[in-house]
Amino acid sequence: MRLAVFDDFRIGVVEGETVRDVTDVVPAEFNDWPEQRVNWIIRHWATVRGQLASAGGTVRPLAEVSLRAVNPAPPQVFAIPANYRAHLGEIGARSITKGGRTAREVGFFLKAAGSVSGPADGIELPAGSTRRFDHECELAVVMGSGGRNISREDAMEHVFGYSCLVDLTMRIEPGEHEEDRSLRKSFATFTPVGPWLVTADEIGDVDALQSRLSVNGEVRQKAVIADMIVGIAEAIELISSVVEIKPGDVIASGTPKGVGPVVPGDVLEIEIDGIGAMKLEIKEATPAPRPF
Questions:
Q1: What is the rounded distance in angstroms from the CA atom of residue 24 to the CA atom of residue 33?
Q2: DSSP letters of 167-186?
Q3: Minimal CA–CA distance to 171: which of 223, 140, 136?
C-alpha cells in the first residue's frame, strides 16, 4: 500500500495518479493533533490495514494536493554516516569522519524530528548564508514495531515501509565554522521525506533498489541500496542496541558519492525504484535572529 499525507495532514491511499482520502479511519480525537495520524496507523496496522484498503473517500488527482512528509511527527530520526565506500573522503577537509572510518565504526547520529518536511515545503536555506549546503540522497526506513536489542536476523520484520529522503547538510569550514553534525543537519526542512510511504510488503528485495538524485535535471548521485556498508538490518541492530526504537521512527540510510551544493533557485529531484520521485524547490528561509 502507498500512504500519503497531504494538505492539512490528511491521510490518503495513493492509487496511480490519484489519492483516496481515508482520514476518517483515524479516530476523531486526532483532528486536534493531525501530525500524529500516521503514528497511530502504524501502531494499529494489523487492525486498520483492511479498513484503509476498502474505505470510501474523496478521490483527487495527486497533482492537486500538497504532499507532506510521509510521517510528519516521527518520534526519532536516526542517520547512518559514511555508509558507501565511494563517498568516503569525498568532501575532503570538510569531512568529519576521518581515517577511512565507516558507519560500522562511527555508529549513528540524530537529526531533529522538527527538520522533517515534505515535497510541498521545499528546502529552505538560512537567509543570507554564504556557507555550503549539500544534498545527500538516501533511503528512508520507517519503523513499524519497535523494541530494544533487535538482532539483524529479526530486524526486517520490524520495518513498516520505505520512502525517499534527502539529508540536507550545512558543511563545516575547518578552523572557522565547525558546529556539531546534528545542528548542521537539523534546520527546518532539512529532512524532506516523500513523496509517499510504501509498505514493506510491496517492495520485495529492498537491496535491489536503485536511488538517483538530480539538481536542475543533472544527475549527481546514483547507487544501489545493496552497496551500503551497513545494511538496513544491521543498522536496526546497531540503533536498538543503544536505544529503544519506536513505531514511526525514521532511519536515514546514508548517502552514496556525488554529494554537492545547492543554492536558492535550484530544483532537486530524488527517485528510488519501486517508491517514486520527490521534487523539491530550494528557497531562502525567513531571516533568523542567529545567522549562519
A1: 14
A2: --EEPPBTTTB---HHHHT-
A3: 136
- The answer for residues whose C-beta is within 8 angstroms of residue 130's C-beta and 6 or more apart is none
User: Is the full-model pTM beyond 0.85?
Assistant: yes
Alpha carbon 276 to its chain's center: 13
User: 77-284 architecture in CATH?
Assistant: Alpha-Beta Complex (3.90)
First to last CA, the chain: 41
CB neighbourhood size of 262 (10 A): 21
In order, the DSSP letters of 241-271 are: TTS-B-TT-EEE----S--EE--TT-EEEEE
- What is residue 102's predicted lDDT score, i.e. its pLDDT? 81
Burial tier of 249 (Cβ tally within 10 Å: 0-12, 13-18, 19+): buried
118 phi and psi angles, rounded to 5 deg: -130, 180
Segments of the chain with pLDDT less than 50: none
Q: According to the model, what pLDDT value does residue 88 have?
A: 78
For CA atoms 225, 226, 230, 233, give the dihedral sign. Answer: positive
Task: Give 263-292 pLDDT, tens digit per residue.
Answer: 999 999 999 999 999 999 999 999 999 999
Largest CA distance in the chain: 59
Query: Looking up cell 535550484, which residue turns up?
Result: 266
* Domain definitions of the chain by residue range: 2-64, 77-284
